UniProtKB/TrEMBL annotation:
<dbReference type="InterPro" id="IPR000700">
    <property type="entry name" value="PAS-assoc_C"/>
</dbReference>
<dbReference type="Pfam" id="PF08447">
    <property type="entry name" value="PAS_3"/>
</dbReference>
<dbReference type="InterPro" id="IPR005467">
    <property type="entry name" value="His_kinase_dom"/>
</dbReference>
<dbReference type="InterPro" id="IPR036890">
    <property type="entry name" value="HATPase_C_sf"/>
</dbReference>
<protein>
    <recommendedName>
        <fullName>histidine kinase</fullName>
        <ecNumber>2.7.13.3</ecNumber>
    </recommendedName>
</protein>
<dbReference type="InterPro" id="IPR000014">
    <property type="entry name" value="PAS"/>
</dbReference>
<dbReference type="InterPro" id="IPR052162">
    <property type="entry name" value="Sensor_kinase/Photoreceptor"/>
</dbReference>
<dbReference type="InterPro" id="IPR035965">
    <property type="entry name" value="PAS-like_dom_sf"/>
</dbReference>
<dbReference type="InterPro" id="IPR004358">
    <property type="entry name" value="Sig_transdc_His_kin-like_C"/>
</dbReference>
<dbReference type="InterPro" id="IPR036097">
    <property type="entry name" value="HisK_dim/P_sf"/>
</dbReference>
<feature type="domain" description="PAS">
    <location>
        <begin position="28"/>
        <end position="77"/>
    </location>
</feature>
<dbReference type="InterPro" id="IPR013655">
    <property type="entry name" value="PAS_fold_3"/>
</dbReference>
<keyword id="KW-0597">Phosphoprotein</keyword>
<keyword id="KW-0418">Kinase</keyword>
<feature type="domain" description="PAC">
    <location>
        <begin position="83"/>
        <end position="133"/>
    </location>
</feature>
<dbReference type="InterPro" id="IPR003594">
    <property type="entry name" value="HATPase_dom"/>
</dbReference>
<keyword id="KW-0808">Transferase</keyword>
Amino acid sequence: MEEESKDRDNICKLAIEGSSNGIYVFQDGKFKFVNEALSKISGYSREELKKMNFLDLVHPDYREEIKKWTEQALNGDLSGLPEKHEFEVLMKDGDSAWVQLIPSLVEYEERPAIVGDVVDITERRKAEEREDFLHSLLRHDLRNKAQVVQGYLELMRDFDLNEEAERFLDNAVNALTGGIEIIDKVRTVREVGKEKLGKISIDAVLEDIAVNKKPQASKEGIELEVENFDCDALGGKLLAELFSNLIENSIQHAQCDKIEISGRKTKDECIVTIQDDGKGIPDDIKDEIFDRGFKRGKTGGSGLGLYLVKEIADSYEGSVEVKDSELGGARFDVHLKKA
């Protein structure tokens, strides 16, 4: 047994020393142990790290937060503490780096201590910052310019255009409108999973969407009916986007005369049904329509609308399924947790 225990200890030491992640044991305001990887991340030697105040490594913007959760954890109170922490650290050469820390509370020499698992995420953060900048250009600069072009194209309708020119103008406006919609959907994709969730009145969300969508539906000769059912679900602001995309899908692609929105409650769920009397969705593609980029026919749109519906529902720990409608067309059932 003693031999087995020694073997286990040796294996653990080899794993810790060989890890590419920084590993440390923290107690009494000091590092009791640090591995070589943490030394490489920080630029300090292991001996230097053990003599330092650990907060000197933390960027000033994050010191108070890190100090607070460290003291709370060492007092045995883990309530409300995140499993992971991402913050900036100061390296020996004066540069800074971003790290992700996963801490664990353990007993070390019969007293509470923190074992930290540290990963250098600097390159990932730089990539995210570049991506954020590019998306900012896309959402604001490019979208604004596209809307200016759209405005000038609409002004051209005041001129006496021949039939061919009118057709070209319609094609240009439709293409530009589609481009703006793609920009908006890309923004939504980036927001999925980042929302703060809370209690949302489904009736209120559906009523607002109906007010916005009824003129569009009416223009296409479609009757849009909404039935209230008084259910509060767990969700965020993207819930409106979810339902809006489903209704938009029916208006644009179903070739229907009627869209019905209704709901029912179970013990744990609010279930919203959106169905139409249109051409329906063939069984052989029902499993594909929520895939990113899926398009069907000339009116296939961006291929992002139904993908977003599923992604938003999943982020709320809900689900969405497609069936044949009793009206003759397609039916979408959205399952959401009760708040």
